[in-house]
Every structure is written in C-alpha cells, then in structure tokens.
Write a structure and sequence with these properties.
This is Heme-binding protein. It comes from Streptomyces polygonati. InterPro entries: GlcG_carb_metab_protein, PduO/GlcC-like, PduO/GlcC-like_sf. The structure is a single chain. By secondary structure, the protein is α+β, with helices and mostly antiparallel strands. The chain contains four helices and four strands. It has a four-stranded antiparallel sheet with strand order 2-1-4-3. A hairpin with a 4-residue loop joins β1 and β2. α1 runs antiparallel to α4 (122-137). The protein is globular, with a radius of gyration of 14 Å. 47% of the residues are buried.
C-alpha cells in the first residue's frame, strides 16, 4: 500500500498568508488557490480588488501544477508551437494553464499539493506563488 501525504487546511492557510504578504508588497491584489495531493481545492482567497476573472485562473494554475508536478512557468516554456507540450492547454477540459503562477508544493521531496496565483503580470504572479510555496517547500 502506498501512503500519500497531503496538505491540511492549516497548511493551506499558511501558504495563502505568505502569498498575500508578497502580493501586498507588490502592490497587486491576487487570487491565491491551494489544492491537495489529488488536485482538489482546499482553500482560495480573493484579495480586495483582485480580478474576479482570475479566480478560476488561480484555481486552474494550482490544478495544473499538481496534475503535472511542474511549475506552470516551466510548462509554458515547453508549450509553444513546435514544442513537446504544444496544445496541452486544451486537455483536461481546458483546465490547463500555461503561464506563470502555479507551483507544486513538496514535503520531504514528495508533492503534497500546489498553489496557483493570478491577478497580476506573469512576473508578479510567479513572485507571489514562490513566496506562498516557501511556506511549505521551505520546511
């Protein structure tokens, strides 16, 4: 039997809090989503002023990172015309996001979930996601 660890609600709250702090430093409100090992939503926050249209994007960035255990930034780098993952954004009922802001969350080298951030530029989303992920990945 394989034992799989996942994230708790307290873990998700810590990830979101770290992300919110970075988004405030950036001056760009964000949507921040955390999914568990199975890609299921644990928690989501839409900061005051964050785009409503970015809610689904943040959730789907987290799903994408967990589904493929890769950052969405790295996936995007291989999803252009002629690249090995070209067209992947059309898979999984269109849930695959191929731009920065999604990062797998690891504990003890094992993927236990993911975070997805949307609401700013790709660089802003990535910086918020990196800060959020550090709440788990840095342990």
């Amino acid at each position: 039997m394989v034992s799989v660890e996942s994230l708790s609600l307290d873990d998700a709250r810590a990830v979101i809090a770290a992300g919110e702090q970075k988004a405030q430093e950036n001056g760009q409100p964000s949507n921040i989503a955390v999914v568990d090992h199975g890609g299921n939503l644990i928690a989501h926050v839409r900061m005051d002023g964050a785009w409503i249209g970015s809610i689904d994007v943040s959730i789907n960035k987290a799903f994408t990172s967990r589904a493929f255990d890769i950052t969405t930034k790295d996936l995007a780098a291989n999803a252009g015309p002629g690249d090995q993952f070209f067209g992947i954004h059309g898979s999984n009922q269109g849930r695959i996001m191929i731009f920065a802001g999604g990062i797998p969350l690891r504990r003890g080298g094992q993927v236990v979930g993911a975070v997805g951030v949307s609401g700013g530029s790709g660089e802003q989303d990535q910086s918020v996601a990196e800060a959020a992920a550090a709440a788990i990945n840095g342990k």
